[in-house]
Amino acid sequence: MKYVREIKLSKEKSAFYREAMKKNSKNWPSETLSETAVFDNGYEMDIKLCFADDGGYWTETVLFWNGSEVCCTEPCDDFFGEWELECDGTIYSVIMEESV
Q1: What is the pLDDT of residue 48?
Q2: CA angle, corner 33, sides to 82 and 9, nearest 5?
Q3: What phi and psi values does residue 44 have, to the nearest 5 degrees?
C-alpha cells in the first residue's frame, strides 16, 4: 500500500524557505521549521528544515505514529520535492511544492 500527500506552500512561504536555505541567511530563525502531512491511517510525516551550527541547514523527514517517531530519512540538503519512507510494508510519500 502507498499513501501520498501533497503540501503546497504559498509563494511567500516558499520564498522564506528558499532564503532560509542559503548559508548564513539573515532570515534563519535558528529553530527547526517543519511542514506536516497527515495520512488517512493516522500516521503523520514531518518534513523538517533544521539549523546547523555552521550557519547552514539540513533537512529530513520523520514519520510518526501516535506522536512517536517510527522512522526517518538520512539528512539531506533539499526541502522541496518528493519524500518517501517505508514502514511495515507501507510507503508514505509527501510531495513538497510551491503553489502556482
Answers
A1: 94
A2: 50
A3: -130, 145
Cell numbers at 16, concatenated: 522564506
Residue 63 CA: distances (Å) to CA of 3, 11, 67, 70, 73:
12, 26, 9, 6, 9
- The residues facing 71 across adjacent strands are 63
Task: Render pLDDT for 36-84 as a digit per residue (tens, 0 to 9).
Answer: 999 999 999 999 998 877 767 889 999 999 999 999 999 998 899 999 9
What's the whole-model pTM score? Answer: 0.87
Count of other CB atoms within 10 angstroms of residue 64: 17
Distance CA 10, CA 47 (A): 16
Residues in CB range of 27: below 8 A, 6 or more apart: 16, 19, 20
Among 80, 87, 97, 1, smallest CA distance to 44 is for 87
DSSP 3-state of 59: strand
Please give the grid coordinates belonging to residue 56.
547552514
